[in-house]
């Protein structure tokens, strides 16, 4: 009588309903309230009944979301003069046989005898079977009649568009997810169809404890159910028409269902094992296994540029280390940086003050020339900063790594080993996902979802272990928190991956050990690489500088700034390269107080965030 979608108050309400016959108040149910969340006359709507007239009224305000409904029960035969509903077709007989195997596979045979009542009718589809988890695959689909078509998803039949009788048989196999509920929609009368006779039989290799039939009360006297320990038989004693729904749910001990392990289960285990043992070999031969105990260092290293420092510290070439060169040039007065704000937020104008001399490395000169390729002035903001930095990073990556290889700064891991480890890890992840979703009809969609979530979790875990390994090797107070973080976070990561990929088709121990190997491989391969003896002293110096940057005590930093107020400008490139900005910036914030947000160090931090596409955290 009144819907709940009005976006304003209703001052008064009145309705008059003229029914086709005299109404008894006992056959009327009046419901009112807000947003359909009610089971009585919560709005106190008044009701009057005389003869065949019903009047509803409310003189006070009905607030937004108010709703009024009325249910009226009429005697059978009230609408006896209405024309009969014209069905598109009538199912004269429907026989369904389902055999459930110990592998929880359903072998289905459906026999139909159908009378087509209309010609050229578009709504001539017949759903073959509604099974719980209906997105599961259907295999070996066959139909005995050439006149019956099959849609692209194999879940419904296209009947002939001509009048007449047609008899046909459909057979197929369905594999729902193992351990899923054993539930069948015996009849779904959502389409214009009438069933005169139906026989539904279920035979199970696993004992059936019970069978629950779910249907409307007026249907229960039309169906007959016979139950035994392994067989269920359901018959209709009367016609089943439109809007009739009958569901059957079997109570079965699902632990009795088993499926043989697929070859992918063995592949993922052995690929993970190969990945683990090769990673262990690389760790023993090429990674730093000793703990570095470095004393605090306070000044920028004059013997190495910031990009090379980041590479030596993290054992990898990163975009962040490359971005540190901009601050390195600024500290050496090769460029000037000015900041200003407009509608786009923070903007930085970088001006070229001169060319890099021969004391700078080739990769530095290339990146410098790329930055000022079109003009001696460059504007960097949030819109272009990250992309610009990525292009400069990509342009020098090959030359930088070749330079590091020639200098033999780090022990070189044979490329064959790297490729085998990466390929084994890729195969492991793919097989884990395949084992989990291979029985689903929408494999591509699910594969994409599982791959995205799995890769994201493993990437996060990889980043965390890298920081923890650096912290552990550098036995310092400032970084010890990473060790605790790894202990508390690695377990949830591991459990989430287990919940995602442990599945009954593969023995638990196989999948569990596969995930163990995978996690241990990631943990091991993120250990810093050994450097040569010449660079070891430089590396110790960088760890000492890292200790100081991460020391939360501000006393030493305050003393250094009092001696030289430009101190931060010299060390900031190395702060960026060693990824120590957050703690250092918070220390500067404590020292500068109110002046911090107008200081040069704050704007340098913002520029670093823009170049690396990260969020401003202070």
Automatic annotation (TrEMBL):
Phylogenetic placement of the source organism: Bacteria, Bacillati, Bacillota, Clostridia, Eubacteriales
Source species of the chain: Inconstantimicrobium porci
Membrane-spanning ranges: 263-283, 416-437, 443-461, 482-502, 508-524
Assigned keywords, A-Z: Membrane, Transmembrane, Transmembrane helix
Protein name per its UniProtKB record: DUF2207 domain-containing protein
């Amino acid at each position: 009588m009144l819907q709940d979608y009005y976006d304003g108050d209703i001052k008064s309400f009145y309705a008059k309903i003229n029914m086709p016959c005299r109404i008894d108040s006992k056959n009327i149910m009046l419901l009112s309230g807000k947003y359909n969340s009610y089971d009585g006359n919560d709005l106190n709507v008044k009701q009057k009944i005389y003869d065949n007239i019903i009047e509803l009224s409310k003189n006070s305000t009905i607030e937004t979301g108010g709703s009024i409904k009325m249910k009226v029960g009429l005697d059978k035969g009230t609408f006896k003069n209405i024309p009969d509903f014209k069905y598109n077709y009538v199912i004269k007989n429907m026989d369904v046989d389902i055999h459930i195997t110990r592998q929880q596979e359903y072998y289905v045979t459906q026999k139909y005898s159908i009378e087509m009542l209309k010609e050229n009718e578009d709504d001539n589809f017949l759903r073959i079977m509604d099974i719980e988890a209906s997105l599961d695959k259907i295999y070996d689909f066959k139909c005995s009649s050439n006149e019956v078509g099959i849609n692209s998803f194999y879940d419904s039949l296209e009947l002939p568009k001509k009048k007449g009788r047609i008899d046909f048989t459909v057979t197929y196999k369905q594999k729902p997810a193992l351990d899923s509920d054993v539930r069948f929609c015996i009849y779904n009368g959502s389409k214009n169809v009438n069933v005169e006779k139906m026989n539904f039989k279920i035979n199970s290799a696993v004992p059936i404890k019970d069978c629950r039939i779910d249907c409307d009360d007026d249907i229960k006297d039309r169906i007959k159910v016979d139950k035994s320990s392994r067989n269920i038989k359901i018959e209709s004693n009367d016609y089943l028409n439109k809007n009739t729904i009958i569901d059957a749910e079997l109570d079965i001990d699902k632990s009795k269902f088993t499926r043989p392990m697929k070859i992918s289960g063995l592949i993922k285990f052995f690929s993970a094992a190969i990945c683990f043992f090769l990673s262990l070999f690389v760790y023993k031969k090429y990674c730093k296994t000793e703990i570095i105990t470095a004393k605090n260092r306070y000044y920028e290293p004059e013997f190495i540029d910031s990009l090379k420092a980041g590479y030596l510290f993290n054992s990898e070439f990163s975009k962040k280390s490359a971005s540190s060169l901009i601050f390195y040039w600024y500290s050496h007065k090769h460029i000037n940086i000015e900041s200003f704000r407009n509608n786009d937020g923070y903007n930085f104008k970088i001006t070229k003050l001169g060319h890099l001399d021969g004391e700078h490395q080739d990769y530095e000169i290339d990146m410098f020339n790329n930055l000022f390729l079109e003009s001696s002035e460059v504007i960097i903001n949030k819109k272009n900063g990250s992309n610009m930095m990525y292009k400069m990073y990509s342009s020098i990556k090959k030359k930088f790594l070749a330079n590091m290889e020639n200098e033999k700064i780090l022990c070189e891991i044979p490329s064959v080993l790297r490729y085998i480890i990466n390929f084994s890890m890729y195969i492991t992840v793919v097989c884990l996902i395949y084992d989990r979703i291979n029985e689903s009809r929408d494999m591509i969609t699910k594969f994409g979802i599982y791959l995205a979530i799995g890769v994201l979790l493993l990437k996060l875990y990889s980043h965390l272990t890298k920081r923890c390994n650096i912290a552990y090797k550098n036995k310092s107070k400032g970084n010890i928190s990473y060790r605790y973080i790894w202990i508390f976070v690695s377990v949830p990561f591991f459990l989430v991956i287990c919940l995602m990929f442990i599945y009954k088709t593969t023995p638990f121990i196989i999948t569990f050990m596969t995930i163990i190997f995978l996690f241990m491989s990631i943990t091991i391969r993120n250990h810093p690489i050994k450097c040569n003896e010449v660079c070891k002293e430089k590396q110790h110096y960088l760890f000492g500088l890292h200790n100081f940057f991460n020391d939360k005590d501000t006393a030493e930093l305050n003393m250094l700034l009092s001696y030289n107020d430009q101190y931060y400008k010299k060390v900031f490139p190395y702060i960026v390269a060693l990824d120590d900005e957050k703690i250092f910036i918070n220390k500067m914030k404590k020292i500068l107080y109110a002046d911090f947000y107008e200081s040069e160090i704050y704007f340098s931090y913002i520029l670093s965030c823009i170049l690396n596409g990260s969020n401003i955290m202070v």
